[in-house]
Each structure stands twice: as structure tokens, then as C-alpha cells.
User: Which sequence fits this backbone?
């Protein structure tokens, strides 16, 4: 092809103890294109990107930039050449302010910088992206979506020739993703190259000029736009022609599982996270909760799982009041929770996959003999779960933090659903999962519902909500503003409700 | 009376102030340094020997800074480059400092030098109450004031300071912004150690212008504790150091007045109260967000996932 290339990799291989993360990857990126990298969880996408930015050193292979072989010994080196990246896991300092986090990423800040001048500069950038953030807020106080924007801005303030985005849209709302895509296309039109990673097919189809499929550490094919469609990419990626679709039987609405009455929760700033919130959950029901992130979904999940106290209102399980009684703790034990913030409250990063899998029921007879752990049983459980959920876990005894983002997510889901919980509170359960895995999680939720598990499914993915839910409620500013039937509603109707238009 | 007490407070607090400031620079970059006691002793001996040999106090201070910086670079190399255990390396440094200064200090015992003298700052030293204690002091004390402000300015108003703090909080974040993590950490450990050395030199060049074996008497450990009390801020380090200094001054006063309480008990008081205040203040701190750099104590390996 007569196409010029900006960056080319040849036969890259990268191994970690016991894991071949990249086996043989060859790839070329042209100037002025948006190049999407597609692959299952653990296929090696992030590893490849880390090799391109000098964070990991490849065992073998060559990187050519502008046709010249280069070797990066640090991210500083690759930045100097004009390669920048937004990492899948945030590279923020939680204790530092928005201003400080962004400032360090800006090129050419003099050592004795003028605070006023650079504050204005950062403020201008925030305004440009219509972000309403206070420069002096520490990053830990921001919502996950806002943190993602800070990460994006840290890259966009630099003048890079190749911009790498590792699953930037996983935590963004559809509206925010659309905004990001406008920025990406503008950059592309200016002649910059963009490497983009996402598991959301809708986005991949919309934005890519070319797609490269990565499978088990090998680059399979690169296809230009027009030569692929959703099905073809999926089958290349997973190696199966048809992804099975699961049909959910309708809920019978017989037995009440949980009733929330006029619940209110205030946050540290004294504002209402939940405001007079009322809803009912039936046995075997999947209740979808739609809403733009930050409208109280997290607080709802946290009161239901006992992580937050309600300021007023009641939670009833059957006829028992569990708002703040001792009954609560035993009830909470029967609730499964897939939290939003996987790394900090979902797992113990330094412990093994096997230990993380039994964290909820380490005390059960199945995993102990008298006061001692039954290592053999724990291992058997791990092997079974790893197989069942197709978790790419690396060698036995590896800490869970080595796993790829999607695989960590699968471990949490496997653990939470293993105890046959009566209620599942799931926040964005398929965020970051490849399509095959997402489909499998859907199946597990549906199977659970068939056996009487009630699910509160909090999600931003309308397709997922429409597909799984018996009923969809919409949240806005901590209140329930609408309740629709997925069979009869439209995306537009939900969209309107999400933006705060009160139900007719 | 108050003037005299304040004056003694400042003089007793200064060695600890330097040591705490040096330790803060270490920890802000993410490296725990338990070698402070040893570094102070090395600084005290080197400062004394340097002045003894050259007759110049400036040479003495520079020798103290240089010797402690050199000793600290061993800790830096082990913890930063080799990613060794910071606690073990620090403790070894303290023992090394105690041992070597006892050995090489033998020939210095009994020698004397001309110590730092007071220089009144015109105008300021005439202020009521605070004039004499703060502005009729020696050059090293004036330097310590300057250092407190300079370090705060460095941390919060310069890009290098921001880089150093980021390295201590989240080295991966610094790395991906192009900050050289290893170099930054190493420099923070060495320069911080050098400043600790000046604290030791204050003892042998100003407090008592002579060399006494183990003359730091545990002040280095107080400095280690004060870092937490100061929540890694140089201004609060000043408060903590003067707290220790103040109680020292008072107990000296008691002794001079000839109480019947044993001198040993009185000498214990500054340590006791400093630890007590520290314990109480950390209970209070735990309620809010911790100020501790998040990456403290953790070696950085680029290829390791966090
Ligand atoms: N620093 C590391 N140490 C050990 N193993 C690692 C490390 N980084 C990656 N791996 C392993 O390499 C493999 C590929 O991981 P990678 O993060 O590249 O996957 P991915 O394609 O980005 O997946 P996802 O879509 O889930 O993010 C995984 O099996 C992972 O466990
Ligand atoms: Mg990844």
C-alpha cells in the first residue's frame, strides 16, 4: 500500500512471569487516521499500548516511528517524540487538585511558574470542554466521569502526533462519549493519528477509519472501514460466528423482595444524593435504573448494600424493616454488590485471584477445616470460576492486580453471583467487558432471575437496559422521575426523562 | 523570663527542625528514612571535624551537609535504584551512623572550637518579647527560618516541587507525565539527608561547641515522629520542633531552680510530651483525609501493575 505510516511495530513480543501478554504483534498507524484496536479482555491491548509509550519494554520486536527504529526507555522518551496516552487505569494523584494534576502534564511550564497565568490557562481548557470543575478540588472528590475528563485533558493539552486512548469511554455517558468523538475527529482532520480502544461496538463502528483485531497476543487482521461490520468483527474477535442471545422470561410480580419508601441520603456537602426515593422490587424481577451518572445511582447502591446511612425513609424486606436494625447486617450479607469503583472497593489487589473469589464466604464450611483454610477447596473453586467465566488469570497464585481490567471485573462478578444472592445490586456490570463476556454476564443475571434473584441493574447502556429489564426507572437529581415499560418505551422517551423532563 | 524561655526554646528546637525538614523532603518523594538519628550524628561529627580542621564554621556546615548527603545516598541507592526495603535500610543507616561516629569521633573528644555566635538583626531584635529570641540568634537559626519558607515555596510554587510531590503520591502518574521518578526520588533522599546533617551540626557547632559521643540522644527519632505530627508541612514542622524545644527549655529551667525531681525524669519530659502530642494529633487527623503521601514506602517498578 502506498499509504504513509507514522508508527509501525514489527513482531512485538512481551511476556510477564508465566504469561505471554503479547506474542507477535505487527501494526501500522497512518497519519490522520483513527485506528481502533479490538480484542477480548486480556488479549493484550493495554500491554501493547504500554509498550508503545515506553512503560513496558518489549522482549522482542521493533518499533519504527517516522520510519526510524526507536527504543523508548521511559514514557518521557515517547512523550518527547510526540506519543501520548490516556491509560485504562487512572494516572491521577487523588490528593492533588485538578489544577496540579493538569499542570504536571503541560509541556514547558517553567520551574518558577506564574500561578495566575497557568490557572487561567487550565481554566480555559476546562471551559473549552464545557467542564464545570473547580480548579482547587482534590481529584478524589470528583466523580469517576470527571476524573476521566481530567485524564483526557492531560493528554489533549500536549501537542502529540499520536494519541492513544485506552478505553476512555468505559466510564463516560453516551453524551460525553459523543463530545469526545467530536474532539477525536477534529484532531484526525488536523492530521494527528489516534489509536482507540473500546469494547462498545456502536462506537467502534462510528469512529474508526481502520480496525485491527488482536487475539491472544497476536495481531489478526487490519481492516479498513467498509470491509467490516459488527458481526464480522465479533466473530474475528471471539472466534465464534454467532454470539448466543438470551431471552428473559417476564417477571410475575408476585412476591415483594424489597421496598424503598421515601428514602433520602445526604452527601458530605449536605446535598441530597437521594431525595424522597420510592420504589418496589419483586422477586425474580430485573429492575433497570437509567440516568446520567451522578444522579444518585451510586448512593442508591450504597444504602442498599449498607455502605451508607439513610437520613430518612425506610427500606423494607418483606415485612421486616431493615433500614438500620440488626436485621440489616444479616440481610446485607445476602445482597450481592458489583461496585462502580472496582479497584478500590471491589478487590484486594495484592491477594490472589483464588482468595479474592472467596472473600465473601471465606468463613463458609466449604473453604475451611475447623479454623484452617482449606487451600485445596479454595483452589478448586478458583479453577471452576476461572473456567466458568473465562477469566484470563495467569499462573496460579498471581495477585489479582496483574489481571487486565476486564478480567478483574469478571472476578468480582463471579464472586458476587456465586452465593445465590437474593438481591443483586449491579452498577454498570458490563463496563469494560468484551462483547462475549458481557453476553455471558447477561446470561448469568437472567439465570439468577429465573431462580428468584431480584436485580437492580444500574446502567448507562440503554441497549443493555432495554434488553434485560422488566421495568426501567429513571433517576434525575436523586429522584425517581419516571418508570417505563421496556416493551413499549423508546430511547427518546428515556433520554428525555434522563435529562429531567418530568413524566407526563 | 518569657524571653529567656523562648530563646532556649528556639535553640533547643533548631536541630530537630532541620532534621524534620530533611525527613519531610524524603517522605514527600515517597521514601521513608529511619536513618535520621544516624545522619544527625554523622552531620554533628563531620561539622565539628570540618570546623576543627579549617577553623571555619562555614566549612564545618558544608562538611556536615556533604557527609550526611553521602551517607544518605547509600539509603537512596538501596531504596530507589535497588528497590530495597526502606525500613531495614533506614535502620541500618542509623546503626551505621552511631557506630562510625563513635569510632572516628574518639580523637575529637575533648577538643574545642569557636562555636556560632549571636548576630542581632538591627531593628527586628528590638521588638518586644519576640525580638531577642528570634532575631538575636546565630546564622544557622536564621538559615532554618529561611529553609522553612523555601521548602513550602518549593513544594507548592515550583514545578520541581510538584513533580517531587507527585512522585511521592503516585509514581506511575509522574512517570507517565515524563517526570524521571528514580532521579527525583534519589535527589530528594540525598538532599534531604544533607539537611538532616546540618541539624546534627547545630548540636556540635552551636548548642555545645564540642563533640560528645551519641550527642543527638534520640532527637533523630523525635524528628521522624514529628514528620507525621507536621503532616508533611514545613510550617507545622517548625511548630513541632519548637514544642520539643519549649519543653526542653522548661525542664532546664526547673533543673536550674533546683527542684527535688530527678534530672533523669525531667530530661525525659520533652520526649514524652512530644510523643503524647503526636499521638493525640494523629487521632484527630485520622478523621479527616490522611495527609500521608500515598506512595510512601512503596518502591516503584514501572512494569509492575498496581
Ligand atoms: N504488569 C503486568 N504483570 C503481569 N501480568 C501482566 C502485566 N500487564 C499485563 N499482564 C497480563 O497480560 C495479559 C494482557 O493484559 P492486557 O491488560 O494487555 O489486556 P487487555 O487486552 O487490555 O484487556 P482488557 O480489555 O480487559 O483491558 C493479561 O493476562 C494480564 O494479566
Ligand atoms: Mg486493557
Assistant:
Amino acid at each position: 500500500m502506498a499509504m504513509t505510516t507514522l508508527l509501525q511495530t514489527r513482531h512485538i513480543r512481551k511476556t510477564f512471569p508465566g504469561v505471554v501478554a503479547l506474542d507477535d504483534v505487527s501494526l501500522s498507524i497512518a497519519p490522520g487516521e483513527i485506528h481502533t484496536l479490538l480484542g477480548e479482555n486480556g488479549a493484550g491491548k493495554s500491554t501493547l499500548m504500554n509498550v508503545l509509550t515506553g512503560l513496558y519494554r518489549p522482549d522482542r520486536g521493533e518499533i519504527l516511528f517516522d520510519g526510524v527504529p526507536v527504543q523508548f526507555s521511559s514514557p518521557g522518551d515517547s512523550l518527547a517524540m510526540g506519543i501520548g496516552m490516556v491509560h485504562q487505569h487512572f494516572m491521577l494523584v487523588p490528593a492533588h487538585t485538578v489544577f496540579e494534576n493538569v499542570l504536571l502534564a503541560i509541556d514547558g511550564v517553567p520551574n518558577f511558574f506564574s500561578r495566575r497565568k497557568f490557572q487561567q490557562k487550565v481554566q480555559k481548557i476546562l471551559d473549552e470542554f464545557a467542564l464545570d470543575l473547580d480548579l482547587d478540588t482534590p481529584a478524589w472528590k470528583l466523580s469517576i466521569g470527571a476524573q476521566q475528563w481530567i485524564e483526557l485533558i492531560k493528554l489533549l493539552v500536549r501537542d502529540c502526533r499520536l494519541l492513544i486512548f485506552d478505553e476512555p469511554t468505559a466510564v463516560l455517558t453516551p453524551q460525553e462519549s459523543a463530545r469526545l468523538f467530536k474532539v477525536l475527529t477534529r484532531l484526525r482532520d488536523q492530521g494527528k493519528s489516534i489509536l482507540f480502544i473500546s469494547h462498545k461496538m456502536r462506537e467502534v463502528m462510528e469512529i474508526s477509519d481502520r480496525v485491527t483485531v488482536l487475539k491472544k497476543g497476536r495481531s489478526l487482521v487490519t481492516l479498513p472501514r467498509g470491509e467490516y461490520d459488527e458481526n464480522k468483527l465479533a466473530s474475528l474477535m471471539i472466534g465464534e460466528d454467532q454470539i448466543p442471545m438470551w431471552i428473559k422470561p417476564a417477571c410475575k410480580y408476585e412476591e415483594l423482595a424489597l421496598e424503598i419508601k421515601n428514602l433520602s441520603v445526604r452527601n458530605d456537602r449536605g446535598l441530597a444524593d437521594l431525595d424522597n426515593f420510592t420504589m418496589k422490587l419483586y422477586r425474580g424481577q430485573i429492575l433497570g435504573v437509567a440516568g446520567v451518572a451522578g444522579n444518585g445511582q451510586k448512593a442508591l447502591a450504597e444504602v442498599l448494600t449498607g455502605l451508607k446511612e439513610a437520613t430518612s425513609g425506610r427500606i423494607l424486606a418483606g415485612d421486616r424493616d431493615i433500614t438500620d436494625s440488626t436485621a440489616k447486617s444479616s440481610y446485607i450479607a445476602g445482597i450481592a454488590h458489583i461496585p462502580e469503583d472496582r479497584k478500590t472497593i471491589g478487590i484486594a489487589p495484592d491477594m490472589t485471584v483464588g482468595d479474592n473469589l472467596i472473600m465473601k464466604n471465606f468463613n463458609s464450611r466449604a473453604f475451611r477445616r475447623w479454623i484452617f483454610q482449606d487451600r485445596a477447596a479454595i483452589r478448586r473453586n478458583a479453577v471452576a470460576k476461572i473456567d466458568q467465566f473465562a477469566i484470563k488469570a495467569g499462573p496460579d497464585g498471581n495477585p489479582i492486580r496483574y489481571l487486565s481490567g476486564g478480567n478483574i471485573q469478571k472476578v468480582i462478578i463471579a464472586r458476587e453471583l456465586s452465593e445465590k444472592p437474593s438481591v443483586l445490586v449491579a452498577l454498570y456490570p458490563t463496563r469494560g467487558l468484551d462483547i462475549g463476556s458481557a453476553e455471558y454476564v447477561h446470561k448469568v443475571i437472567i439465570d439468577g432471575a429465573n431462580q428468584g434473584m431480584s436485580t437492580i441493574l444500574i446502567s448507562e447502556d440503554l441497549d443493555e437496559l432495554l434488553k434485560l429489564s422488566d421495568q426501567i426507572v429513571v433517576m434525575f437529581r436523586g429522584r425517581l422521575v419516571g418508570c417505563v415499560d421496556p416493551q413499549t418505551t423508546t430511547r427518546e422517551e428515556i433520554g428525555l426523562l434522563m435529562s429531567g423532563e418530568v413524566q407526563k | 523570663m518569657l524571653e529567656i524561655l523562648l530563646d532556649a526554646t528556639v535553640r533547643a528546637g533548631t536541630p530537630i527542625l532541620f532534621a524534620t525538614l530533611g525527613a519531610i523532603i524524603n517522605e514527600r518523594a515517597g521514601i521513608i528514612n529511619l536513618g535520621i538519628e544516624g545522619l544527625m550524628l554523622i552531620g554533628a561529627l563531620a561539622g565539628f571535624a570540618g570546623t576543627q580542621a579549617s577553623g571555619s564554621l562555614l566549612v564545618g556546615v558544608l562538611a556536615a551537609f556533604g557527609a550526611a548527603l553521602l551517607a544518605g545516598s547509600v539509603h537512596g541507592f538501596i531504596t530507589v535504584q535497588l528497590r530495597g526495603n526502606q525500613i531495614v535500610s533506614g535502620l541500618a543507616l542509623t546503626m551505621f551512623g552511631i557506630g562510625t561516629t563513635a569510632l572516628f569521633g574518639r580523637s575529637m573528644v575533648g577538643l574545642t572550637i569557636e562555636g556560632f555566635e549571636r548576630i542581632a538583626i538591627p531593628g527586628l531584635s528590638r521588638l518586644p518579647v519576640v525580638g531577642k529570641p528570634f532575631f538575636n540568634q546565630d546564622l544557622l537559626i536564621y538559615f532554618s527560618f529561611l529553609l522553612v519558607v523555601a521548602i513550602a515555596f518549593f513544594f507548592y510554587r515550583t514545578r520541581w516541587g510538584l513533580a517531587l510531590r507527585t512522585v511521592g503520591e503516585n509514581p506511575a502518574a509522574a512517570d507517565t507525565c515524563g517526570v524521571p521518578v528514580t532521579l527525583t526520588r534519589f535527589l530528594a533522599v540525598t538532599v534531604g539527608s544533607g539537611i538532616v546533617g546540618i541539624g546534627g551540626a547545630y548540636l556540635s557547632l552551636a548548642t555545645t561547641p564540642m563533640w560528645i559521643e551519641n550527642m543527638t540522644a534520640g532527637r533523630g527519632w523525635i524528628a521522624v515522629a514529628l514528620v507525621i505530627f507536621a503532616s508533611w508541612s514545613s510550617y507545622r514542622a517548625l511548630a513541632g520542633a519548637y514544642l520539643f524545644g519549649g519543653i526542653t527549655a522548661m525542664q532546664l529551667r526547673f533543673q536550674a531552680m533546683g527542684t527535688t525531681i530527678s534530672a533523669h525524669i525531667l530530661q525525659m519530659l520533652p520526649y514524652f510530651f512530644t510523643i503524647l502530642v503526636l499521638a493525640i494529633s494523629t487521632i484527630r487527623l485520622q478523621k479527616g483525609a490522611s495527609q500521608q503521601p500515598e506512595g510512601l514506602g512503596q518502591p516503584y517498578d514501572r512494569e509492575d501493575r498496581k
